[in-house]
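Example record

One chain of 217 residues, shown exactly as stored in the release files.
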Amino acid sequence: MRVLVVEDEQLLADAVATGLRREAMAVDVVYDGAAALERIAVNDYDVVVLDRDLPLVHGDDVCRKLVELGMPTRVLMLTASGDVSDRVEGLEIGADDYLPKPFAFTELTARVRALGRRTTVALPPVLERAGIKLDPNRREVFRDGREVQLAPKEFAVLEVLMRSEGTVVSAEQLLEKAWDENTDPFTNVVRVTVMTLRRKLGEPAVIVTVPGSGYRI
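Predicted structure tokens for this chain:
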């Protein structure tokens, strides 16, 4: 899942991003509304965690732009105000969910995951395919009943492949969904991560390489 965090309190923004990355999400961070619009124009995000009171371009206007573009991106709006009228206004602008500050990080993560599920065809909470069972919420993976310990990026790549339900996913798509914008597009990190995944998942291999196209399970 690819997430954009837009928050002008840099310590909070960076803390949220770090936490979401530990949950196997690819996260980009910006600190004002103008930078958010620039990122949205060039990257596809599953979820935008959007502070409402932003400098340069207000969070409301960023949200309106997403709605205007007709993008499938979901918006979790953050605000320091807990007033009900503010929440209603934010939802009417086009936000999909609303979370007042201060918030518990576990709740933020749960809401981001729930919104991320809405950007794709509805799938069961626990994904199962080819003897693999993947639980995104618990961050658990089992292969034929055996638990498999995965690093965050390995988990992210496996989740993308599982959600594709047998269709081929290109290396570029994996790079976009599992890594942030600071990753070198010419890196071999996707190939290395897939090799590690194959080793950890064991035999028989379930991740198939489709020459010239990508990978599938």
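Notes: The chain has two domains: 1-115, 125-214.
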